[in-house]
Amino acid sequence: MSTTSYAGNRERIVGIAAELFARNGYHGTGVAELSKAAGLGRGALYHYIGSKETLLYEISKTQVDRMNAHAETLLGSGLETEDLLRGMAKGLLRNIAEHRSEWAVFFREYTALTGENRDRVVAARERYEGYWRQALDRGVADGVLRPVPRLLVKGILGMLNYTYLWFEPDGEVGTDELADAFLDALLDGIRQG
Amino acid sequence: MSTTSYAGNRERIVGIAAELFARNGYHGTGVAELSKAAGLGRGALYHYIGSKETLLYEISKTQVDRMNAHAETLLGSGLETEDLLRGMAKGLLRNIAEHRSEWAVFFREYTALTGENRDRVVAARERYEGYWRQALDRGVADGVLRPVPRLLVKGILGMLNYTYLWFEPDGEVGTDELADAFLDALLDGIRQG
Questions:
Q1: Residues in chain B whose beta carbon is closer than 8 A to a beta carbon of chain A?
Q2: Which member of A80, A181, B162, B168 has the greatest number of CB atoms within 10 A?
Q3: Does residue B145 sit in helix, strand or coil?
């Protein structure tokens, strides 16, 4: 069995688990059900994954890591504040729209993670939040943004993250347009000038 | 047994269930565990509640109904747009801070509701969203707000609802202050004027 097929199989199993966990809950999904959906015996499933918690960890960590890599690229690219914020928002909304099951599982179930798994996911989340803070701080330093309370970052992330619950990928409004609408409101306010 | 003690017991059981569901998941909490935590036999538990799903329904519906009643009062009180929006945000953040387990269970687990239970909770949620839309529409009609995309309501609710995940009731910032900080950003934007 080649490395590619090992990694490919692993990714496939994580995807199947994300859908099952999103539908029936992490605690509501048994290893037997996972084996059946993946078309693998328990031994083979264990070979690829190790434990149900590893699946939850992979589901959660993979997307947050991607968002961190995306934010790092944008922060390092010399974009101006407004483009930086809009780019970060678009990256997140696109990823959520493409991986709704994964994000639903992450938001609903990450508290079921234990020990190091939980610590690593929480640390990755905090890193992502830190990148948003950096982007805002840079805007303040450049005189583009007014100083804002630290907790506003949580509000912005709530605005964006919450899309996992309601965004319709085939609806009238696309992720980029939505990100821009949110950023328009956030940058310039909704009060009549 | 008086009516009061029936209602009181019911409320107590719903509160216990909210904490257990928040900690171990809805699917991860058994009726035996609920009976034990409530100090009641299965028969008595059934007398007060009927089924585990009824508990999930009560946990979810009670808080959304309270928020609807709160929004109706404010919308009917002739407040100006800005005070109306700030009042609605404060009411929601206060309720979330006081009932974090209930909101966590609602956001994570309401998809486990079935049939009429689910329909009623979804309808109550949509009514609440409708009240926010009304408040914004009123502001636009009064010339206080600029016209905003319909989906912004979901962004505002995301900002506020997401606090169930991170708000520290004993932290430095209180719910009213936080609601005002969010509304400041939303009304006037974060761009340096």
A1: 24-28, 107-109, 112, 136, 139, 143-146, 148-149, 151-152, 154-163, 165-166, 173, 178, 181-182, 185-193
A2: B162
A3: strand
Tens digit of each residue's pLDDT (9 = 90 or more) over A49-58: 889 999 999 9
How many domains does chain B contain in total? 1
Residue B165 lies in a domain: yes
Task: Please give the residue range of the domain that contains residue A104.
Answer: 52-188
CATH of residue B78's domain is 1.10.357.10
Q: Are A190 and B108 in contact (CB < 8 Å)? A: no
Q: Are the CB atoms for B1 and B7 separated by under 8 Å?
A: no
Whether the per-residue pLDDT at B128 is higher than 90: the answer is: yes
Closest CA to B108 of A104, A57, A184, A169: A104
Report ipTM for this prediction.
Answer: 0.91
Check residue B25 and give its pLDDT.
86
Cβ <8 Å between A28 and B25? yes
Residue linked to tokens 């805002």: A136
Provide φ and ψ at B29, rounded to 5°: -110, 120
Question: Does B23 reside within a domain?
Answer: no
- What is the phi-psi region of residue A50: left when phi exceeds 0, alpha when psi lies from -120 to 50, beta otherwise? left
Q: Indicate the pLDDT class of residue B103, thresholds 50, 70 and 90.
A: very high
Average pLDDT over residues A19-46: 91
